[in-house]
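Why should sequence recovery work at all? Because a backbone constrains its sequence more than one might expect. Tight turns favour small or flexible residues, buried strands favour hydrophobic ones, and helices have their own preferences. The token representation captures these environments compactly. In the example below, the structure is given first.
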């Protein structure tokens, strides 16, 4: 068989993701605020795009002449209508902002900022400032311009004025850079002395300098040392408090009687000491650099319909009893400036310039259509979620049903990956609060009636039972199993323990100690 070069023509098919399709998929996974950022970049790159107003074009405007509306790029009927500025005749998929009920009270205007997480010995708000404003006005743009300084930057700005010793200042700055986000020094002083090649006394002096900085407690190596620094600042560090801080392990184990005997105080003084201890911050570094909690802007609004028989709003999806719409406050609206395109086309005499202008028009048209399809898809998926989880919206988390991506995908006739993108980074606001769309997709457990029950409903029932338990009769996991079975949840003891730990509730022994500590006031 002779070997030789030759040319063959073969026909084949392949599935290729065009840049436009990749862009549409990317837009689907973004939230409305992220889409706004994306559109801002597109406006800078494409002169034919402009941000539209809340309403449509004025009805009284004269229709442009035939040559002002005619373009050379569009080939399909849909593109022809979009290119000529008559997209409304094609029933576009975007939401007409004129149909939005802007006066409707959604109830999300007064959402409070998230509370600072309490940890360690703190209960409620311990040594932390609670943020949040009662007004409905958001911060001005100049209030968002600069981000909060980090803990290291905050400490570096103070230490320069505390000493004129250059070596001591150098070691102090070096120690500041070794602090973790909570303000603790995780290295031992001998390790620091060896790393810097300095006497241990100089390192100790530098650490003492760092420990004088604000917030009080930074530079500590242990929890006891951190609380001792704050006790000294409050002028409460006496021998009895020192003895209490030296035996924090007994406090953690709940051995209060033994700890009180070691301190040599009566019950009243011991309660005062514990109350003082609760006022200290075990992680002072977290107060610096974290900044205020950002309020979540919901992408989807769900409200009870004004009437069961009312027709669905053009801006929302049709679900009996519910009005579902995209949030107009974060809903981006992009328009293609046709008159500017025609003006530029008339001035383009070069073929290359005309080709570039045509590409910009094609990109602008595709972006508008991609945004239209995105909004339509989000509304369709959100409507199905509300339909599947109607019990939650009417009665609360105890009526949350097990639901998977496949369930919604089959109902709306889309792929599971599309549903996953739609529910990513999207938040839904209803009368019960603001929830991420992923929240409604939960696994199920068996019920006594044979039907599946949502895991979130089980967690809510466990939390309710534990919150209402008698401090003198703490519920064990076996007792929780019996009580849950009476409520219709058929669960094993191991499953109850898993859900209890998932919501941050301790065992019966741990809860008994916590309630004993809370009772010492």
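From this structural description, the recovered sequence reads:
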């Amino acid at each position: 068989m002779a070997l030789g070069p030759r040319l063959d023509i073969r026909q084949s098919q392949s599935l290729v993701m065009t840049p436009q399709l990749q862009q549409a998929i990317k837009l689907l996974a973004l939230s409305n605020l992220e889409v706004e950022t994306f559109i801002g970049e597109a406006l800078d790159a494409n002169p034919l795009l402009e941000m539209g107003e809340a309403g449509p074009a004025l009805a009284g405007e004269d229709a442009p002449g035939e040559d002002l509306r005619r373009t050379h790029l569009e080939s399909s009927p849909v593109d022809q209508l979009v290119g000529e500025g008559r997209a409304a005749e094609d029933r576009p998929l975007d939401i007409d902002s004129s149909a939005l009920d802007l006066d409707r009270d959604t109830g999300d205007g007064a959402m409070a900022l998230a509370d600072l997480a309490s940890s360690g010995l703190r209960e409620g708000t311990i040594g932390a400032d609670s943020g949040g404003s009662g007004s409905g006005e958001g911060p001005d743009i100049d209030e968002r311009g600069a981000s909060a300084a980090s803990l290291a930057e905050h400490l570096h700005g103070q230490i320069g004025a505390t000493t004129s010793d250059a070596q001591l200042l150098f070691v102090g700055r070096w120690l500041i850079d070794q602090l973790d986000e909570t303000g603790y020094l995780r290295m031992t002083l001998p390790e620091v002395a060896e790393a810097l090649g300095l006497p241990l006394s100089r390192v100790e002096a530098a650490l003492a300098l760092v420990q004088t900085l604000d917030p009080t407690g930074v530079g500590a190596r242990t929890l006891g040392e951190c609380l001792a620094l704050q006790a000294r600042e409050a002028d409460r560090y006496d021998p009895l408090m020192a003895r209490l801080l030296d035996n924090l392990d007994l406090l953690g184990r709940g051995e209060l009687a033994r700890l009180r005997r070691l301190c040599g105080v009566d019950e009243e003084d011991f309660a005062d000491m514990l109350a003082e201890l609760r006022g200290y911050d075990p992680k002072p570094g977290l107060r610096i650099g974290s900044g205020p909690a950002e309020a979540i802007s919901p992408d989807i609004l769900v409200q009870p319909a004004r009437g069961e028989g009312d027709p669905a709003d053009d801006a929302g999806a049709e679900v009996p009893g519910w009005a579902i719409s995209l949030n107009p406050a974060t809903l981006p609206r992009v328009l293609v400036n046709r008159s500017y395109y025609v003006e530029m086309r008339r001035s383009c005499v070069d073929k290359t310039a005309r080709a570039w202008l045509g590409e910009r028009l094609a990109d602008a048209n595709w972006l508008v259509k991609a945004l239209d399809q995105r909004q339509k898809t989000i509304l369709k998926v959100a409507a199905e979620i509300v339909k599947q989880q109607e019990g939650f919206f009417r009665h609360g988390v105890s009526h949350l049903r097990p639901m998977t991506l496949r369930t919604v995908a089959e109902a709306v006739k889309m792929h599971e990956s599309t549903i996953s993108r739609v529910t990513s980074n999207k938040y839904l606001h209803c009368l019960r609060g603001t929830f991420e769309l992923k929240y409604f997709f939960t696994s199920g457990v068996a019920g006594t009636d044979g039907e599946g029950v949502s895991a979130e409903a089980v967690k809510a029932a466990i939390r309710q039972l534990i919150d209402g338990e008698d401090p003198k009769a703490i519920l064990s996991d076996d007792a929780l199993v019996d009580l849950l079975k009476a409520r219709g949840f058929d669960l094993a003891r191991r499953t109850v323990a898993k859900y209890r730990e998932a919501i941050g509730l301790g065992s019966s022994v741990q809860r008994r100690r916590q309630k004993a500590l809370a009772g010492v006031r």
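A few observations help interpret the result. Residues 54-79, 81-147, 308-314 have pLDDT under 50 and may be disordered.
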